[in-house]
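Researcher: Sequence of NIPSNAP domain-containing protein follows. Predict its structure.
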Amino acid sequence: MSFKLKSLRSFVKLSFILFLCRRFSESSDKGWFRSLFVHKVDARKDAHSNLLSKKETSNLYKIQFHNIKPECLEAYNSLEAEVQKRLHQDQDYPCEVVGSWNTWYGEQDQSVHLWRYTGGYPALTECLQKLNNNKEYLEFRKERAKMLISRRNQLLLEFSFWNEPLPRPGPNIYEMRTYYLKPGTMIEWGNHWARAIKYRQENNEAVGGFFSQIGDLYVVHHLWAYENLQTREETRNSAWQKEGWDANVYYTVPLIRSMESRIMIPTKISPLQ
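Model: Prediction complete. Tokens:
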């Protein structure tokens, strides 16, 4: 009998505690206690491509990664430079080279190209149709194919809060930091970086920030320019001396599945030198 009475008392106590917890959490919508029981997430009202990209432009970007046979790297650079120059200067094609690099540290014997299509997807379609009818370009592709091991690309939009990637004089080295995010976290990433980018502007190192639309999804590319590796080290360390930078790192790291850093050297004709 005493055992049943003790069990009943324990049950009553537990029920009363749970009742108080619910009442307290209901009356403390913004309090810390409610956060232990309720995880409130604002419903998305639009696609992250519309919420995070620049509204004043309709630019679409394409990034290409070409893995080249080591013995062909010099010939590849010469051939690519000739074709890029023609396309860049030909007003009949609605595309332009933003930057072109060879990877220095990271995946070796790799070339990275960033293109801008002014006018978005219609401009991309127009450009591809014209190139597919350009016999000279088709011959270039055949010749280039002999030099490649593999290639891949992505279509990107630029974050609204990043700098527009404009031509700049050199000499510089460039770092492309690529973040593979957990699906569904792009809005949260953008919200944090919209505040954090101000900590990385003092030395004019911020070149551009992009997120993928087609290809590998939930991928972010941040592009930075530095005078050399030592300047890169000093610039990155100085960010930690600014109040607020540590919080940005703290809140964005859990959003990342994996990340990659490339140190790149611009090719001779790259607008970003």
